[in-house]
What we know:
The protein has two domains: 6-157, Pleckstrin-homology domain (PH domain)/Phosphotyrosine-binding domain (PTB) (PH-domain like, Roll); 158-207, no CATH class. 46% of the residues lie in helices and 29% in strands. It has six helices and nine strands. The strands form three sheets. Strands 1-4-5-6 form a four-stranded antiparallel sheet. Strands 7-8-9 form a three-stranded antiparallel sheet. Strands 2-3 form a two-stranded antiparallel ribbon. The relative contact order is 0.11.
Amino acid sequence: xxxxxxxxxxxxxxxxxxxxxxxxxxxxxxxxxxxxxxxxxxxxxxxxxxxxxxxxxxxxxxxxxxxxxxxxxxxxxxxxxxxxxxxxxxxxxxxxxxxxxxxxxxxxxxxxxxxxxxxxxxxxxxxxxxxxxxxxxxxxxxxxxxxxxxxxxxxxxxxxxxxxxxxxxxxxxxxxxxxxxxxxxxxxxxxxxxxxxxxxxxxxxxxx
Length: 208
């Protein structure tokens, strides 16, 4: 079981194609500004005595700046958290509208990964989490590192919580939970433990 909250973020290499575009624009913008001098905005800012400050703004330099801002937003606009209660997805952290989706471990039906060939080389990908209530994808982990390992870890956490919930439910249905919590006779406690072990064995057999 998770003892503390684990934060999962999108990795930079998941946006490698946009980073390549950024570096291409970063290299080409000075060249384009040299060949197209009309794209440079010049104007006088202010003067102090005989000194005059002139502003030169190459418009082509705005292209790599916009590309970098776009990549940064895509990276830091999402965040995912996993704790003992379930999974929480934050989408739109840097946007005007923010969406927070929470799913309990016991409600998770399936955990699937999606990777292209290029993403498998970079060991990145997406994880889709669907619930038993709707059957649809409730949370998508976008561009996370080692999606296969993360998928296995989430499945283990889900199975542990669901096993614990089934055990508690079966104990309540058989009326044993109250005996275990109370200060009953030793014979009653012994019987409760015996049936509890039987329930544990049944849950293990169902899992197998």
